[in-house]
Amino acid sequence: MGVEVVRQRRLARRAFIGPTGTLQEISIFSGHTAAMRPRILVVEDEENVAFVVRTALRLAGYATVETSTGRDALQVVCADDAFDLIVLDVMLPDLDGFEVCRRLRSDRSDIPVIFLTASDTVEDRVRGLSIGGDDYLTKPFSVEELVARVEAILRRSGKSTESRLLVCRDLILDDEAHQVSRGGKTVRLSLTEYKLLRFLMRNAGHVMTRAQILDHVWSYDFNGESTVVESYISLLRRKVDAEPPHLIHTVRGIGYRLNAR
Ligand code: CA
């Protein structure tokens, strides 16, 4: 990812044009506690439905971000792809929910989608699921059912609030207790080291570029040199990866990969 792309993503992430045409802050980086919770994008143009969905999800322990149009939804996902799930209304004022989902999937986004719709026709149901939706709720729905379906999908995708344990061989990160151990021994990490390790473990088996690491681990306002990533990888290696088998691998010229097994 080029520096310019990263810069644009950071700018796009700070704010977006809302339905009223005004700039709205997105509370994506609302602090450490919020970062621990699964994040759900709610796309709904009816304020009363949006209120019910938002309240139910927050009470169930999820962090939510909202948009009321399809285009805003695509823009928000483009700026920040770290959502764990999208609750997507079908009847939106611009692009409909099916089209939003189709574009997300063609952009290779695999964020799970639950459609909300007033229509209960078989055709709509089949259409929603065939373009990559994961579930379908017909209005009016009970909030208990919504929360149960959200939880079921997150459990399937390994992002449930119940599964907060990341394991790579004998390296274990317990996100609930905020503890890390290697070979059964507790390791003390600084907050940044912890966030870096969690990011690598969540993406174990995949190469993470320096830009991706900077973007996810450091604040979007961070303007320092990317050598900070090297420095923290080296600190992390000393603390959790000093003995073989080594889990953190440098992919020359690109970034780092934490081996899944
Ligand atoms: Ca609607």
Task: Walk me through the structure.
- With 261 residues, the chain is of the alpha/beta class.
- It has 2 domains: 3-160, Response regulator (Rossmann fold, 3-Layer(aba) Sandwich), CATH 3.40.50.2300; 164-258, Orthogonal Bundle (Arc Repressor Mutant, subunit A), CATH 1.10.10.
- Helices cover 41% and strands 21% of the residues.
- It has helices at residues 3-14, 32-36, 47-59, 70-79, 97-106, 122-130, 143-156, 191-202, 210-217, 227-240, and strands spanning 15-17, 23-25, 39-43, 63-67, 85-89, 113-117, 135-138, 165-168, 171-174, 179-182, 185-187, 207-209, 248-251, 255-258.
- The strands form 4 sheets. A 5-stranded parallel sheet has the order 4-3-5-6-7, with helices on both faces. A 4-stranded antiparallel sheet has the order 8-9-10-11, covered by helices on one side.
- Strand 6 (113-117), helix 6 and strand 7 (135-138) form a beta-alpha-beta unit.
- It is elongated, with a radius of gyration of 20 Å.
- The protein starts with a helix and ends with a strand.
- Calcium ion binds at residues 45-46, 89, 91-92.
